[in-house]
Design goal:
The strands form 4 sheets. Strands 2, 3, 6, 7, 11, 13, 14, 17 and 20 form a 9-stranded mixed beta sheet that branches. A 5-stranded antiparallel beta sheet has the order 5-4-8-9-19, with no helix packed on it. Strands 10-12-16-15 form a 4-stranded antiparallel beta sheet, with no helix packed on it. A hairpin with a 5-residue loop joins strand 4 and strand 5. It is mainly β. The N terminus is likely disordered.
Amino acid sequence: MKHFHIIPVVVLFIVAFASCSTDVEIYADYKDVAIIYGMLNHRADTNYVKITRAFCGTNDNPINAREVALISDSSNYPDKLDVRIMELKSTLGGTYQFTGREFALDTITIHNKGEGVFYSPDQVLYYTTEQFNTGTNGDRYKYRLLVVKPDGDTVTAQTTMVGNEEFSILSGSANFQLAPTDAMGKIIFKADGMASLYDVKMQFNYSEEHVGQEMKWKNVSRSFGTRSINEYTRLEGTANTYYLEYSMNWLFNALESAIGGDTIVDANHPEVIRHVGNFVVSISAGGDELNIYYSANQAQLNSPMSLISVYSNVDGGYGLFSSWTTIEKTEKLSYYATRDLFSVSAWGFKEQ
């Protein structure tokens, strides 16, 4: 179930008169509230779910939230919880049914969390090495998380699983041009039937070797930002194929910023030799739950109203339980892009 909680931010003015009471109850009675964040990825060897609890002071014992957040015991449950994931399957658009597959999550402590608002460097996570299914030939999967708290109350969350066989990158070559142009290239992909949020990136890799020094790999890259599927252009005549455009000048502009526009092979600079590596397009896709969570946060950032919008798909608690995956495709630079790259002698690109 999806929940939206709208919390008004109000400035309170308390005026004290001799005949009026100024006692204000700031804290409500404490209630154990689970906070859950998990992002399942079927390509990962191990999937993690973060489960903590909210903390709160009392009127007799107020707290400084910033200080308490740095204490691990204030967020963690004292003992290991009973945490399970159940698998549900739909065939050819039918209702989702429990497959009978259920597995328990164990705990692990990581020791490399950087300093921040919450405690570090140790963090307790729940994890599983079980494989998650994404569906083929019309099959689709959902996964339901069940958490049993120490008081016996249960917390549940459910997510669709992205990463099915439909999701693929269709464009085959990267077209770029040295001369100034208004021409646009395209990255074409077939959308994942269970995803609604996408992030597209492209990266050109190249090697760089100064005479007498060790060769290094470098790159120039661009991220197109996180967008819902509706923000991409659907390819005419198709039902589920989309594209985005990029300037065909992008690669040469990016390399000029990274390498420099002036000659680097002169008396003041040792000879530099560069070789063309590969060009990689990667697309990350997230489920509906992640899309709603992202949209709610973006709306809050851009809203002039004094409202805090909190999205949660966790029943009996707060947080986010969703799925995501990333695919990559190595594309070839077009003949004309490679020719233009070798023509910029100052950059020192050589054929291998």
